[in-house]
Amino acid sequence: MRLPKDDAAVLSARWTEGVLLKRDVFSTVERGRFRNPDGEVDAVLRRLDRVPWWSYLPARHLFARERRALARARGLHVGPELLWAGRQALVRGFIDGVALHLAKPFGDAAYFRSAKQALRKLHRAGICHNDLAKEQNWLRGSDGRAYLTDFQLAACFTTRGRLFRIAAYEDLRHLLKHKRSYAPEALTPKERTILARKSLVASLWLATGKKVYRAITRGLFNFTDREGGGRRLVNDAPVLSDLIRKNPDVRDTAIVAFADRRTGVGLYAFVEADRTALEAQLRSDLAAAHGPKPPEYIQVVQALPRDADGKLRTEILQLVAMNQLDLIEPLMTSETDRAFVKSILESRKNLRDRFNFEAADLVPRSSTDVITREGG
Are residues 256 and 268 in contact, defined by beta-carbon separation less than 8 angstroms? Predict the structure, then answer.
């Protein structure tokens, strides 16, 4: 499938391809730069020309919903601005921030106050997001505020009728579930009451519709959405981690997913060990095990990043694997952290799909200001 000529002409003239963020049966999403009359801006492109023929109709429906919601939300500053929309592609502004499951704003009551304010603005404009149970659809901006993204399931209402009120209530309830996970002490008595009361529609959906939805998406579409990792992260990564840890030289490992232009989803294994030449042996062991497909990249590091409690900081490894290097800096808490992460960045493996989004104080100058396209 090809983009319509008018869409292709606009993108050819105004879009600079960057880092692939996500590729599934409903769309391809990548980060790059878009040329406006005032100059280039960081942006995100969603396109439908690379979806399978059998998923085109639902993909087209989701695309239309997002385009309509972003157009109505223009100027609210609670999500990405719609910069341009064609028949099978749209460009939205890039929000400088990371997803909730990467930011992990523990104890950050101010973040959740701003999230509630953002949701209130959205609802006042007659828009319900309808997909806020996913942490990846909440962003924590570099300014510390909350932003929403991925409006494919959003609904626009002309009146504040019963259906709108139910959808708005469920948006709020899903936000409060995240607040309960990260800042439970900040929950008010009223918010706790909302958390305890699902709407009738939500209860019916959980009992019936969600089971059908899972059967279709995981069965027919072979689609599992877990932090964008799909089936390989859910099913293959745990098996591969166990196989890697069997090597006596391995102290620990962490496997994260990244978007891959060829396969859709790739796996990146970070292995904690002293012997940097261990990669070849690990690949041989994984091949001999006849298990899941080995990770596309295996990087041996002296130590994996951990927090004060010793828990792996997979959010940093995720950003390294995805080449979203400029988003790592806000997650650093000390110069020791920066030096530690820089040692990982200097030997990172995924250089095929790389753009000049690197933070200069983290990445060596030899690897900054470079655009690497697919195939070279």
Answer: yes
Residues in Cβ contact with 120 at an 8 Å cutoff, skipping those fewer than 6 apart = none
Q: Is 260 strand, coil or helix?
A: strand
* 267-287 residue pLDDT tens: 999 999 998 889 999 999 999
CATH homologous superfamily for the domain 230-367: ANL, C-terminal domain (3.30.300.30)
Given a cut of 70, whether residue 146 has pLDDT beyond it is yes
What does the longest C-alpha to C-alpha distance in the chain come to? 64
Token couple for 259 = 């978007």
CATH topology of domain 5-93: Phosphorylase Kinase; domain 1 (3.30.200)
Tokens of 193: 């009451």
Neighbours of 216 (CB within 10 A): 12
Listed as own residue / partner, the contacts of 299-302 with beta carbons closer than 8 Å and 24 or more positions apart are 299/268, 299/269, 299/270, 299/271, 299/344, 299/347, 299/348, 299/349, 300/271, 300/272, 300/273, 300/275, 300/276, 301/270, 301/271, 301/272, 301/273, 301/343, 301/344, 301/347, 302/272, 302/274, 302/343
> How many CB atoms sit inside 10 A of residue 335's CB?
8
Cα separations in angstroms, 25 against 53, 264, 316, 355 = 9, 9, 27, 24
- How does pLDDT run across 75-87, given as a tens digit for each residue? 999 999 999 999 9
For the entire predicted model, the pTM comes to: 0.82
Query: Could you tell me what percentage of the chain is helix, strand and coil, using 3-state DSSP and rounding each to the nearest 5?
Result: 45, 20, 35
AA letter at 6: D
In a 13 Å sphere around the CA of 17, the CA atoms on its Cβ side amount to 12
Q: What is the DSSP string of 277-294?
A: THHHHHHHHHHHHT-SPP
CATH number of the domain located at residue range(s) 97-220 in this protein: 1.10.510
